[in-house]
Amino acid sequence: MDPGGRTTERCGPEVTSPEGIEAQTCVLTAGRDRTGEPGSPGRSASPASPGGSGGTVGLDTWARTYYRNETGGELLAVLSLMGPYGRTVQIHCPIGADDEPAICETPREPSRGEHTAYMAVAEFSAPANSGNRGNGGYSGHNRETEGYSAKSAESVETAPLLLRSGSNSPAPAAR
């Protein structure tokens, strides 16, 4: 968190699949103001003095993946934010067939530990029942878990993984 109270991002490299998916996944952190609302740029990152106004009273952490789908078909992204104490927040995002840049992000949650203790992973695939990459009417949902794997019995069955993007991924080696 920077001293100005703005949102900070820790991102992995931009990656591209042979099928035409581009993605970059990040962990974000920002302060909450005294009302519990996300802080605005320019607010102090230090706790407000008792009885004072302004300042932040805690940090929120969430995951975001920036992506572009150039496959020509609809896809499904599963974005997971993994944090300290076995806590995982996961969201399923239907990805349209349009070729426009977009984002998928988890809900914000109060930070529990250092920003560096969090990791985010986005996985892109075509739903198995889609035929040729359609989403088969899938509507996304959020899922929060504590103390167990992010994989869920109610997960949507998907075709093979097309791309995985992580916030802690090392940059590709130069050739």
Helix/strand order, N-terminal first: EEEEEEEEEEE
- Biggest beta sheet attributes: 6 strands, antiparallel
Write down the overall geometry: elongated
Topology, number of strands: 11
Helix content: under 10%
Instruction: Provide the gyration radius in Å.
Output: 18 Å
End-to-end Cα distance, whole Å, is 34 Å
Going by helix content, strand content and strand pairing, the class is mainly beta
Strand residue content? over 45%
Q: What does the average pLDDT come to?
A: 75
Counting DSSP H or I runs of 4 or more residues, the number of helices is: 0
Low-confidence stretches: 40-55, 132-154
Describe this structure in words.
It contains no helices and eleven strands. With 175 residues, it is an all-beta fold. Strands 1, 2, 3, 4, 7 and 8 form a six-stranded antiparallel sheet that branches. A five-stranded antiparallel sheet has the order 10-6-5-9-11, with no helix packed on it. A hairpin with a 4-residue loop joins strand 2 (15-16) and strand 3 (21-33). The chain is elongated and about 45 Å long. Mean pLDDT is 75; it is low at 40-55 and 132-154.
